[in-house]
């Protein structure tokens, strides 16, 4: 049936407006979550209906990686779109409001700063862990509305505020310390995120929602832990209960999007900041080898979802390697916020790949380095090279050996040599760590590692 001319013009205008609308950007991080500790990756130990629904609404990236195997460096890479080793953020900064060196260097411009210039409202809720001086805080790095804690971890409930104890420091709201002690921090972060979404409906906006669950200390509510009473290991039981609370909080957020009519126009990334902890601390990384802190896939390959109902096919999967570094490039492209040509942007806009409009691989290579050279890895297609200390290089075919059990370095020396050369070329572009993790270790070298 042909529409009347005026009605046809109106429909065309509405369609054009919808196509041209800049999407909201929502980045949700969990903390130390195991690869198998979510239903959409086949996990059965803990129900995650809200995360599973999020995965079902978009694309499950089965080879989703972060740029480092522990907390802070991954966050620095994600918020800049650059390998964090390019600017020396290779370790976890100590919580020290007087240390101007330990944090994401002020020479780096972050995603929210670009997005503000493109007309976005910006918010951060949750865990920061990117420096504690006034100049390093989220409200000084492009976030308009903020709520959370500045250090690398925090108690979840019933803490006594203590300025000197990192896990008991006051929460902050919009740059000011508060005396708030929520009933449970995970629940509070979900509620704050929902309030941000309602408050900024019609923006567009960008929200970085960084949960600290299920990072230790394992402090679920008593009621939620009882739901896992059949789990005999108390550490595992508490970890699963925390993941369940995390899932509830994600549900609070997605319900707020739906109730405010913003689901279709919101691009959501969900992933863990690194691989799960060892089983002794509660995580399950099955079928991957290793855990947090390692460059085997158990330390860097994580539950990873991209959802944008207006543009991405619901219920789809994507098997090619993607990275947390891609968040920045994707967001800036969609917002029409150009990245400085003189800076190296290591991520890519994932949307054409996830929609099937771009062929080939998003990344020819993905690289990792820890501790200024303690360990390395590179993934190229299905091949992965691992180097631990002074041990011989290891080579794995991840298509046939997801658990990295069969070292093929001797059988395929030409592949190992090619990847080693590509790794060396990448390493030439990096600098030495600017600071050490608080647990100590060797002092950082003063010259760039070549």
Describe the structure.
With 450 residues, this protein is of the alpha/beta class. The protein has 2 domains: 22-354, Alkaline Phosphatase, subunit A, CATH 3.40.720.10; 366-427, 2-Layer Sandwich (Arylsulfatase, C-terminal domain). It has 11 helices and 16 strands. It has helices spanning 5-20, 49-56, 71-80, 111-117, 185-199, 222-226, 234-259, 297-300, 326-335, 351-354, 413-427, and strands spanning 24-30, 59-61, 64-65, 121-127, 145-149, 172-173, 176-177, 205-210, 266-272, 304-307, 316-318, 322-323, 366-370, 375-380, 383-388, 394-397. The chain has a 10-stranded mixed beta sheet, sandwiched between helices. It has a 4-stranded antiparallel beta sheet with strand order 13-14-15-16, covered by helices on one side. Strand 13 and strand 14 (375-380) form a beta hairpin. Helix 2 packs across helix 7 (234-259) and helix 5 (185-199) runs parallel beside helix 7 (234-259). It is globular, with a radius of gyration of 22 Å. It starts with a helix and ends in a 23-residue tail after the last helix. Residues 5-19 and 440-450 have low confidence and may be disordered.
Radius of gyration (Å)? 22 Å
> By helix and strand content, what is the structural category?
alpha/beta
Globular, elongated, flat, extended or rod-shaped: what is the shape? Answer: globular
CATH level-four homologous superfamily name of the largest domain: Alkaline Phosphatase, subunit A
Can you tell me the number of structural domains? 2
